[in-house]
Structure formats: C-alpha cells, structure tokens
C-alpha cells in the first residue's frame, strides 16, 4: 500500500470525521435560519479558491519505499500531536458555544477547505502529519469531549 | 498455506490474514453488542467514535514505516517460545489492569473494550501489510483474548 494511497485515505477519513462531528453537534440545535445556513459555506469556498489561485505549484514528494530517519520521524509525530491538540481544543470550545447550525457549518466548511487545499497543493510528510492530527483530534472529541 | 500473490510471491498471507479476520470479527461482535443489544440510541456516536479513533494513527503509521523486504523480515524475529510467553504475559497484564481500572474508577466498562479491540484490529492489519513481526502478533493475540475474557466474565 503506497504512500499516496494512504494519503488519499487520510483525506477522505478526515472529511468524513468533519461531517460526523458537525452532525453530532448540530443535532442539539433547534431552529434553522435558512438564509444563514445557505450562506455559511461560501466564505470557506472563496478562501479556498483564493488559496488555489495563489499557489500554482503542486508540491508532491512522497519518497516511496524510503524509511524516515529518527529526528524526521519525531518531528512528524510531534506535528501530528500538536495539530491534534489544537483541533481538539478548538472544536471543544466551539461546540460549547455554537448552538445553531450556521456557525457549525461555517467552521466545518473552513476545516474541509483546509483539508482540500492540503490534499491538492501540498502532498508531503508535513501535510500527512497535519491531516492525521485533524482526523485524530476530531475522533477524540467525538469520543471523550462531546 | 502458501499462496502466491501477484507482487510478492514469497509472502505467506494465510495465517496473518486469519488473525486479521478474527480480530475484525471480535470488533463486529463488540459493536453489535454496543448498539443493538444495548438498545441505546444515544450511544451510537460513542460506538462509532471508539471504532474510528485508532484508524488515523494506523494510517499514519503505515505511511511512516514502509514495508520491509522478505529477507529483512526473517532476521530479527522473536523466538517461538518467547512469543508464547509474551502472549500470556501481555494477556495477563491487560486483564488484571483493565478489570482493576474498571472497578476502581468505574469509567471503562462501555467503550473501552471497543476502543482497544479497534486498536488491535488496525494494528493487526499493519502487521499483515508492513512488518510481519512475531512479537507484535503475540501481544495482539494476548490483548484480544484478555478483552474477551474481561467482557465475558468480569465486567
């Protein structure tokens, strides 16, 4: 199973987890303001288009079959842990404050746009660590902190 | 059971795939018990979350450590007797520790078996694809048996 396949799995898993967390927090919301809910994703969409416009080069370095050495491995795991902690704290704070659908959809679309940008433009060890951190942080929020 | 696959003709897939299948079956059984028998519809997100927590870590680990060649795999393995000992030791440690933890804190009865079994399943998939390590297989088998005993008899 080569690294680009694993990278694709990780992006799909992170997107599914973003959706699951949004629906988990949103199930407790009562009223739906239709206009705001429809408008909510488009901020993230426009930021994504802007980011894709600015960064035209695609950085893909997967180094198939090569073992990562000690310090590089440690840095990758550390980055994943830091991003995971960040996402955990952020989503826990947001979940206790946002009691309606449109802030949740806004935050979910921002996170999905970030994941999509990483998966299209930057494909290396650092972005794999970041995606692992996002996915793992969201899964831990669903398990312990919600 | 020697079965030649397309890419690597020397790898023996039979027994490792059986271990993966049994861990998957145990995972499905625990999930079934958690959702259907418990009849608690609020627990579904927790069951889903407990099953999914080890998966990003497993994908990341498979990304970080590439698959070794067959020659490198056969060299540094634990002996057969050592791996049987490791199996029993890890099973006993997890059984005693888990039951004590559940009794003392009252925390780990519902979703902890599911979480640990999901970690065992994804680690056994990694053991199949990346590194056929006897020590890892022994620890996973011991853990799985300890969870089964804890759920059936003690918790």
Structure description:
- Chain A is an all-alpha fold and 146 residues long.
- Helix content of chain A is 77%, strand content 3%.
- Chain A has helices at residues 3-26, 34-39, 42-54, 70-97, 101-121, 125-144; strands at residues 59-60, 122-123.
- A two-stranded parallel ribbon of chain A has the order 1-2.
- In chain A, helix 1 packs antiparallel against helix 5 (101-121) and helix 1 (3-26) runs parallel beside helix 6 (125-144).
- The N and C termini of chain A lie far apart (34 Å).
- Chain B contains seven helices and no strands.
- Chain B has 155 residues and is mostly helical.
- Chain B starts with 13 loop residues before the first helix and ends with a helix.
- The chains are: A mainly alpha (146), B mainly alpha (155).
- The interface between A and B is medium-sized, with 31 and 21 residues.
Helix content of chain A: over 70%
Which protein chains are joined by the largest interface, and how many residues does each one contribute? A-B, 31 and 21 residues
The total beta strand count of chain B reads 0
Strand arrangement in the largest pleated sheet of chain A = 1-2
Could you give a short account of the major beta sheet of chain A?
A: 2 strands, parallel
- How would a textbook summarize the main sheet of chain B? none
- Rg on CA atoms of chain A, Å: 16 Å
Q: What general outline of chain B do the C-alpha atoms trace? A: globular
Q: What is the chain-wise order of helices and strands of chain B?
A: HHHHHHH
User: Are there runs of chain A of 5+ residues with pLDDT below 50, and where?
Assistant: none
H/I helix tally of chain A: 6
Question: How is this fold's topology laid out?
Answer:
The complex is a heterodimer of chains A (146) and B (155).
Chain A: H1 3-26, H2 34-39, H3 42-54, E1 59-60, H4 70-97, H5 101-121, E2 122-123, H6 125-144
Parallel strand pairs in A: 1-2
Helix pairs in contact in A: 1-5, 1-6, 3-5, 4-6
Chain B: H1 14-37, H2 44-52, H3 54-64, H4 70-75, H5 80-105, H6 112-129, H7 134-154
Helix pairs in contact in B: 1-6, 2-6, 3-6, 5-7, 6-7
């Amino acid at each position: 199973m080569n690294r680009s396949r694993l990278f694709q799995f990780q992006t799909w898993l992170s997107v599914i987890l973003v959706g699951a967390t949004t629906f988990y927090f949103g199930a407790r919301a009562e009223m739906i303001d239709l206009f705001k809910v429809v408008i909510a994703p488009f901020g993230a969409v426009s930021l994504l288009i802007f980011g894709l416009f600015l960064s035209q080069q695609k950085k893909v370095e997967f180094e198939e079959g090569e073992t990562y050495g000690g310090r590089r491995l440690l840095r990758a795991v550390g980055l994943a842990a830091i991003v995971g902690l960040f996402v955990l704290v952020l989503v826990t704070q947001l979940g206790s404050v946002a009691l309606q659908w449109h802030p949740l959809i806004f935050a979910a679309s921002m996170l999905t746009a970030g994941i999509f940008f990483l998966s299209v433009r930057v494909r290396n060890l650092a972005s794999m660590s970041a995606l692992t951190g996002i996915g793992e942080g969201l899964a831990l929020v669903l398990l312990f902190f919600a | 059971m020697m079965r030649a696959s397309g890419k690597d003709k020397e790898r023996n897939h039979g027994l490792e795939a059986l271990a993966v299948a049994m861990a998957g079956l145990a995972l499905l059984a625990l999930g079934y018990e958690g959702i259907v028998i418990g009849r608690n519809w609020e627990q579904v997100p927790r069951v889903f979350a407990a099953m999914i927590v080890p998966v990003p870590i497993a994908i990341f680990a498979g990304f970080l450590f590439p698959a070794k060649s067959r020659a490198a795999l056969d060299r540094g393995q634990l002996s057969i007797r050592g791996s049987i000992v490791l199996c029993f030791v890890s099973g006993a440690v997890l059984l005693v520790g888990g039951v004590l933890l559940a009794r003392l804190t009252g925390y780990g009865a519902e979703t902890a078996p599911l979480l640990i079994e999901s970690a065992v399943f994804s680690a056994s998939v990694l053991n199949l694809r990346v590194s056929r390590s006897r020590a890892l297989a022994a620890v996973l088998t011991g853990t799985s048996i300890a969870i089964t005993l804890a759920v059936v008899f003690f918790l």
